Amino acid sequence: MTAVGREMGEGDRRGGDAAVGRSGGSALLLTEHASIMGRVAMALVGDAARAERVLEQVAREAGAGAPPAGVAALAWLLGLVRVASATQLSRLPLRTRPGAHDAAPTTERLGAGEALPARAALAGLKPTEREAVVLCLVGGLEATDVASACGVDLGTAKTRIARGVEQLLQHEAAGDGEGGAR
Length: 182
Fold this sequence. Notes:
This protein is mainly alpha-helical. The chain is built from eight helices and two strands; from the N terminus they run ααααββαααα. The protein has helices at 2-15, 22-45, 48-63, 73-90, 117-123, 127-138, 143-150, 154-174; strands spanning 94-96, 105-109. It has a two-stranded antiparallel sheet. A hairpin with an 8-residue loop joins strand 1 (94-96) and strand 2 (105-109). It is globular. The chain starts with a helix and ends in an 8-residue tail after the last helix.
């Protein structure tokens, strides 16, 4: 989260009074929602250093734009966090299947989702469902805002949230450390 403050500070120093306009508004939005953005980034990428890079990217992008008309500011910012998190995760090397060095890699990324049992349960969800659940449960967004943040329609957002929560509950009920069903 220090990245958000650092990016805002740099923008304010570079722009002087001119930064009070669009980037000043973005700076206020970033400051207001920094803790939520940090929690969502951490839940999505699972590592403090990667979450920091996500927040740095979001601060740059938020400083260059504004929420589209009709989209809540938090939903817009968490949409940026979602995309930046996916970018960070896409840079991780893929794991190979156990016992087969020449086998095709799995879709699981090295270093993603290993810290806590809850993170392991989240890692067991489809990426689209994981994003929707994190935006809803961690980010505190309503289904309509999740739909905006993910760029999908409301029905799809509700379905992703419901399926993701159902699988998390099944994982908890089973009490296994396997990460749940896909």
